[in-house]
Amino acid sequence: MKSVGIASRSATWLGNRKLSRLMALVATILLVTLVVGLLAFLLIQDKLAYGTFPAAVSIVGVDVSGLTRTEAVARLERDLKGVADKPLAIKVDQETYQITPREIGVTLEYDKMVDEAYERAWSVPIYERAARRFMNKPKTIKVDLLASQDDTLVRDFVSRAINQVNRHPKDAYVDVTSGAPVIVKAQDGRQADFDELLAATKQALGTTKRTVNARVDRVPPVIVDSMFGKFIIINLAAFSLTLYNREQPLAQFPVACGSPSYPSPAGMWKVVEKQRNPSWKNPGSAWAKSMPAYIPPGPGNPLGTRALALNASGVLIHGTSNSGSIGSPASHGCIRMRMPDVEALFEMVEANIPVYIIRGPGNPGFDVTRRPEWWARE
Description:
The chain has a domain at 229-376: L,D-transpeptidase catalytic domain-like (Beta Barrel). By secondary structure, the protein is α+β, with helices and mostly antiparallel strands. The mean pLDDT is 87. It has 9 helices and 24 strands. Helices cover 33% and strands 25% of the residues.
């Protein structure tokens, strides 16, 4: 009886073992079939997708996923029209020099961009494409802008633009042409390198912005507008002297100026010396032959009680006891003022204050933009 039981259990165990092996074999066959089927499905999908762009492919930011090459070109021509028509601009400071794409022969290379994107997308190994399709994680492909241009036309444009970009420094100056002062600000000198600007321009043509910020070396001006504080404008036609603080008038006085035979010199000058109770020295001119060599301070002194000597030879702003000459061309080149007026002005100014002597509004009698030689020597 005992041997019969053992044989029965052995038979059962062997049967179960065969069943387990069978089930494992079936499972393996099913798994292989499933994997082979999945691979076949993915390969079929990959084959069916060939000729169109896979997912996550863009050209200059335009999504071309699922499109054929022809469709992709059409979409780029539509969506990149703004880029295609965008002018090329060279900028420096607040200035812009620009030109249209047509004028420099710029065209977008739609076919080349599409071909590059398609080649890069389908050059991914097939097993990687299949794995990414299964996991729904397509490989991102981005293609930048490709453009062509006429290099000769581009070079000509840069050559014209750099002539505007490059400039000598310009000093600030007081424009007294109208009779009232306008302080014109200084400008730095600028110098851009042609080859560098040309290279930057060609690089910009391969971007959607098409903008070049020109790099320049700068040369500062000698005179900046902050240097101007108080100054005097003497209007010969109006027989007036006006003291300004920059563009704001502080005081105005009537004056006499040089006669037609001895005109007061138009130009930009400065006060070189303040003289309180000045002495008069005979200049040796023909008009002074009958006068003494020297007249000390006092009532008979032709310079009055105050004088401001200019760096214009022999010219002073001074007082006079002959108040009847005020408002006329009566002097030998000097600017005469009533005594109370010159004494008031004397206290309001310092040595080195600029003095502009103009013939009249609209005709200053000198180039107001030009720095005087005496300023250059200082």
